[in-house]
Each structure stands twice: as structure tokens, then as C-alpha cells.
Amino acid sequence: MEMQIPLMQxxxxxxxxxxxxxxxxxxxxxxxxxxxxxxHAALPTIEIALSKGAKVILLSHLGRPDPEALDGxxxxxxxxxxxxxxxxxxxCFLTDWIEGIPDITDELxxxxxxxxxxxxxxxxxxxxxxxxxxxxxxxxxAFGASHRQHASTFGAMQYAEQACIxxxxxxxxxxxxxxxxxxxxxxxxxxxxxxxxxxxxxxESLSKTCDHIIVGGGIANTFLLAGGKETGKSLIEPxxxxxxxxxxxxxxxxxxxxIDVTVAKEFSNEAIAETKSIEEVENDDVILDIGPxxxxxxxxxxxxxKTIIWNGPVGVFEFDQFSNGTRSLAKAVEQNSGFKIxxxxxxxxxxxKYNIANSISYISTGGGAFLEFVKxxxxxxxxxxxxxNKV
Length: 391
Ligand code: 3PG
Ligand code: MG
What we know:
Layout: E1 17-21, E2 28-29, E3 32-33, H1 37-51, E4 55-59, H2 77-87, E5 91-94, E6 108-111, H3 125-133, E7 137-140, H4 151-159, E8 162-165, H5 167-181, E9 187-191, H6 196-209, E10 212-215, H7 217-226, H8 241-249, E11 255-256, E12 260-264, E13 274-277, E14 286-290, H9 292-303, E15 307-311, H10 324-335, E16 339-343, H11 345-353, E17 362-364, H12 368-376, H13 380-388
Parallel strand pairs: 1-4, 1-7, 4-6, 5-6, 7-8, 9-10, 9-15, 10-11, 15-16, 16-17
Antiparallel strand pairs: 2-3, 12-13, 12-14
The chain binds 3-phosphoglyceric acid (3PG) and magnesium ion (MG).
Residues 23, 25, 64, 144-145, 148, 195, 198, 344-345, 367-368 line the site of 3-phosphoglyceric acid.
């Protein structure tokens, strides 16, 4: 890439406290990691740093805990144990690290969830400086979190003695730039999942380049509500409805929305699933998947695509009775012979669950970051690294 930012691979890290911000935000259920993909993706970076003789300190967030109410279910401890197993080297897991990190030479260090710290998400200046002071070299390699202007992804790099870009972030940007430079048409985007405010903005810019945008999950619910439909108790971000309405009113927007849905009276893996046309949704229903007629329409759109960009499930695919929509899209994507890019934690989990990895042209570790890159062609962390290195 036109990357004048120093690359970690090119630096002499011998004996240096090398802090690597990774995205180890993996799904964990009852203490068990259900998709290891992001950990595997981070291994080469860690191995390169170790082979250069660095004292490696790893940082990551996990989930979205409230720093005012420390909830142990967001601990990175299971990730520490998994890393240990995969690297074959002891991993020292530090719960209290912000006040100082011990000088350990023969072990890797993984620090507890950065989002347990007050000031992380607000990019607090003194927290950023505190993080920066714990290292000699700061390495930004958390592609999946590179759209977040937080203390550990954005602030710290501005104060660290040296700051550079890691191999994963660099590789992601190179691949995405190449893949998105001249996509063959028709170009279809599938945007689903629960993080509505992180993703809805991308729809507006995607509609300039995409022939079709397929929506599902919370994004679809928000558009349905904006279009005057009953969405009951479904996942919505009310403050996003206005933006959704504006997007729907744009002339050139080609958003395909569900015409039928699978609903239940509660969000649970024991909930009884019922399929309804969109007009039949009641005010106590929770929409948990697209319906079979919508699946057929979406599959047709996918079949005609020459390029597909996919982020986010269209239903709660973790629960069997609400997985049909996402599974049918996965099958259609698998059978499509065009160029296919998928990204995001859940989407990578879908690829694994339905065993379609071999048919995908490029799998990105980022979800929101991937969409932000699609939208803007760059990312805040990368821009900050550039300006910090004055290029
Ligand atoms: C992701 O899962 O997309 C990244 O880890 C970022 O997480 P966030 O949306 O909670 O910032
Ligand atoms: Mg995610």
C-alpha cells in the first residue's frame, strides 16, 4: 500500500516493550470461545514480534462492557488460555495493568479487556498517555477495531515513543483496496447484524456503487419501521429511524427489504418460531429471521451478482429455528461464481458454520471496520498513524 507508515516487520524490536493492539474480540459462550478465527488471524503478528526479540504486550477489547459495572463475562482470560495453547508459549494474563506492567522476558503478556477502563471509549487523553507510556513501540494491528477512535486504538499511538502498523492491518487494507477498486457489476451488498448505528451510514454510500443492497437483522428492522411497518419488540435503534427514512427517500437507493419474517414472542433459543408476512407482524412480536419468500428473492439477487460484499447475518443464526435465512444466503453465496468478500466476526462464524470458506475470495477479520473502509477508502487509525509519522 502507499504506506509510508513504518511497518512492524521492518523495525528492530530487540528487547523493546512492544505493545500490539489486536482485535481479539471473539464470541464467548459460558467461558468457551465459539469462533477462534480472530485469534488465528493474530498469530503471525505475534510470532513475527517474538522472533524479533520483542517483549510482547498484547491489548484487545472484548464485547461492549460498561466500565462502571465490571462484568466478568467480558474477561479476556479464555483468550489468554487459547493463545497459550496455539502459540505453545506461556501467556501472562494481567488483570491490573494500567498502572504498570512487570518486566517479563520469557512470557507473552495479554492485558485484560481495554474496555474495562474508564476513558477507553471516549479516547481520554490521560488514559491514552498512560497506555503509551507502558511501551517503547506501539503497533496498531487491530483491523476490526480500526474504525474506533478509542484510547487503545487511536489515542495511545499519538503519544507512544514509536508507532507503526502491524502486518494484519496492512494486509487487510491492501486486499480490500484491490478488491474494491473496480468491482465487476452487478455488485450486491448484504448488510445484516445487530450493530445498527455502526452500519446504517454505509448503506447510503453503498447505494452509489451497488446494484442491490440486501438488508437483514436490526438494520432491516430499522428500515421496516422507517417505512411505516409494525416491528413489534424487534431490535431497533430508535435514533437511527430518521436516518433510515432519509436513506429510503434517496432516489438511487436500491435496498431490498424482507416481505416476510420469522418471529417469536421472545428472544430465546427455545422460542417458538412463526413465519408471517410483514403485514401480519404484531406489536408483541420479535423479528428473528427473514422469511422463506424473502429468502427466495434474496437468493435470486445473489445468483445474478458478479461481486458480493457480505457483512452480518440476516437472523439469529445461532438458534436453529431462526437460522434458515442466513443459511440460505450462505448457500447462494457459495454457489455464486463471482468475486466474494465477507467480513466481520459473526459473518466469519457463518462461513465456518456452513462450511463455505473455500468458495469465498477474501475473508476480512473486520465487520464495522470493513464497512467503514468500503465507505471511506480509509480508516481513522490509519490516518492517525500517517499524521503521527508526518507523511
Ligand atoms: C467487531 O466485532 O466488529 C470489532 O471487534 C469492533 O467491536 P465494536 O463494534 O464493539 O467496536
Ligand atoms: Mg462483532
